[in-house]
Amino acid sequence: EPEVTQTPSHQVTQMGQEVILRCVPISNHLYFYWYRQILGQKVEFLVSFYNNEISEKSEIFDDQFSVERPDGSNFTLKIRSTKLEDSAMYFCASSPIQGAQKEQYFGPGTRLTVT
Amino acid sequence: AQSVAQPEDQVNVAEGNPLTVKCTYSVSGNPYLFWYVQYPNRGLQFLLKYITGDNLVKGSYGFEAEFNKSQTSFHLKKPSALVSDSALYFCAVSARGNTPLVFGKGTRLSVIA
């Protein structure tokens, strides 16, 4: 069964550094999402991406964040200058074509630790 | 704005007994409702969804959920719990197709042998 994959599984970085989290969505999916889960808290939406542009973003997704689909398979989340409070599990998700509501398929996550 | 409440942080149940994990929601219009499960060090796995139609939805691993519009609830159920069902369960809602999910805080289910 196709899966969403994410790399790396764990990233440790120093405050102020840039990080890029990578995701490979399921191949025939067209909608892509990033969520994050701070330890012990609920999963929060960051951004959605469709047709090579951001379709929605939350208040969390400020100018420090950006997303890109650099080729036909990867979907990346960049944090330009990391802060301690960016430490979280970051989940990528994808869903198929527009129409009836389809479930989102989640990757295993990247644990980001900012020191 | 959409919201989801999972009133129980932890649910403990004996193996073989029925289980219920509660979820209530708030959304404008007709809701799209989902249950996901998270095992340790794993991503979120889809269990089931309610979009329209029959109020009782059947999903993976023997789980089912009942949509109750008057009570704005979508409780997850299973007739006979297994130890392997022990995990973190998230209820989620969205207001329309292919839109961001709003998650509850999660309920940790512990099935005791």
Gist?
Chain A is an all-beta fold and 115 residues long.
Structure in words:
The complex is a heterodimer of chains A (115) and B (113). Chain A is mainly β and 115 residues long. Chain A has strands spanning 5-7, 10-13, 19-24, 31-37, 43-50, 53-57, 65-68, 75-79, 88-95, 105-106, 110-114. In chain A, the strands form two sheets. In chain A, strands 2, 4, 5, 6, 9, 10 and 11 form a seven-stranded mixed beta sheet that branches. In chain A, strands 1-3-8-7 form a four-stranded antiparallel beta sheet, with no helix packed on it. The N and C termini of chain A lie far apart (37 Å). The model of chain A has no long low-confidence stretch (mean pLDDT 92). With 113 residues, chain B is mostly beta strands. In chain B, the strands form three sheets. In chain B, strands 2, 5, 6, 10, 11 and 12 form a six-stranded mixed beta sheet that branches. A four-stranded antiparallel beta sheet of chain B has the order 3-9-8-7, with no helix packed on it. In chain B, strand 7 (56-58) and strand 8 (64-68) form a beta hairpin. Chain B is globular and about 40 Å long. The model of chain B has no long low-confidence stretch (mean pLDDT 93). At the A-B interface, strand 4, strand 5, strand 9 and strand 10 of A face strand 5, strand 6, strand 10 and strand 11 of B.
**Can you count the beta strands of chain B?**
12
What's the total helix number of chain B?
A: 0
Sequence of secondary-structure elements of chain B:
EEEEEEEEEEEE
* Strand elements of chain A, count: 11
What is the first-to-last residue Cα distance of chain A? 37 Å
Helix content of chain A: under 10%
Helix and strand composition category of chain B: mainly beta
Number of alpha- plus pi-helical segments of chain A: 0
Based on CA atoms alone, the radius of gyration of chain B comes out at: 13 Å
Net shape of chain B: globular
- Share in β-strands of chain A: over 45%
Largest sheet of chain A: 7 strands, mixed
Note the run of SSEs of chain A as H and E: EEEEEEEEEEE
Provide the gyration radius of chain A in Å.
13 Å
